[in-house]
Amino acid sequence: MLTVNTTRPACRAGRISRVETMTLGTDWRNFSFVRIYTDEGIVGVGEITHPYRGRQVCSLVEEMARRHLVGADPFDIEEIWLRMYQGDFMRGGDMAGNAVSGVDQALYDIKGRALGVPVYQLLGGACRDRIPTYANGWYTGGRSPEAFAQKAKETVARGYHALKFDPFGTGLWELGRTERNLSLGIVEAVRDAVGPDVEIFIEGHARLTVHEAVRVGIELQKYDVGWFEEPMPITHVAEYLQVRDKTSVPIAGGEHCTDRFAMRPYFDHDAVHIIQPDVCIAGGFTELRKIAAIAEMHGMMVAPHNSNSPFCTTASVHVDLGMTNFKIQETFDDLMEPYVFDALKGVLPVKGGYIDIPTEPGLGITLVDEVFAEHPPRETFWNMWQDGWEDRKARPTV
């Protein structure tokens, strides 16, 4: 099971013959992808973006391809997943999570193309007619209640019914009185700007201590927010209960987890109301369906995380459609330069805050090499602990 089996008859897609990686540079971050070829001429793609270690993830995928992929039957997705995970002695880790996730997506893409059906049809079909989304990355500009309110109005005018934002600036552990008042003032301004019918989610970015998270969480109740996300570091999941039990605001988290095993503390402690696996981090389609099933056992909703490219948005839609406990999908797509959509031909558009059911075989996306060549990766670092990080533009490294 943990070696490539070349004796069984291959599927109609043939066998994996070649694996390559490629990266597109943008103002937001470098977006990386894996492209898997079969000897029958079918090509599948997946996203392996890492915000800071893109080259290393690409190298890891190429090494794993030599060890576990070339010569394999691309339809044996569960076996290949186990081969990469157990065969490489993975014990979590963000780069490994990216690598396995992207390969898993690409294998499903191959299978869907070979069978002539969209990937979601291989993941249990559809439980809904369209996917609701929420906008992130919209709050570029000054950190003031007035600036946030104006940007929120503009985003809602584009058709979004839900917004997420981090009002806390560079805050860490405790917020001073001035900072706390400013942060809560931003939340109040956004709520007043968009009215009572637009959902707002508050991003904590794992910033706060227990007592500060409790204090903020209690204050957030008056603004009727949809959730308080990652109020504390992911190393303190057991302490999330202290916030959950002292506020009526739902608690969300789990975006950094690389598989269902890393998610286990969230489930063991019933630490959150909403779990947030990322299809480009948490093991791809194979693992997200398992995480969603465990979440359902704990009465949790699933709101998949996505701070990556429009490819990840489209991939997420395919797995969202079949989740019975799906809540809403994150997207940064409106933040992207137009050429990103030229490079990722076939990604699903957000229309009126929703994404329609895909119809193309596989994931329906083609990577356009010429556009990638025109926009190579950049040597940058986006530092959310630096003043002005809300502008969402990576800064050149020195």
Strand content: 15-25%
CATH topology of one domain: TIM Barrel
Question: What's the CATH H-level homologous superfamily of one domain?
Answer: Enolase-like C-terminal domain
Q: What is the 3D form?
A: globular
Structural class: alpha/beta
What is the oligomeric state here?
single chain
Largest sheet: 6 strands, parallel
CATH class of one domain reads Alpha Beta
CATH architecture of one domain: Alpha-Beta Barrel
The total beta strand count reads 16
Ranges where pLDDT stays below 50 over 5 or more residues in a row are none
What spatial order of strands do you see in the largest sheet? 5-6-7-8-9-10
The percentage helix is: 25-40%
Q: How large is the count of helical segments? A: 12
Round the Cα radius of gyration to an integer and report it: 21 Å
Topology pattern, helix = H, strand = E: EEEHHHEHEHEHEHEHEHEHEHEEEHEE
N→C terminal distance: 46 Å
Description of the molecule:
The structure is a single chain. The chain has helices at 54-69, 77-87, 94-115, 145-157, 177-194, 210-220, 240-244, 260-268, 284-297, 310-320, 338-343, 369-374; strands at residues 16-24, 31-38, 43-47, 130-135, 162-165, 199-203, 227-229, 251-253, 274-275, 301-302, 329-331, 344-345, 354-356, 366-367, 380-381, 395-396. It is an alpha/beta fold and 398 residues long. It has a domain at 121-362: Alpha-Beta Barrel (TIM Barrel), CATH 3.20.20. The model has no long low-confidence stretch (mean pLDDT 92).
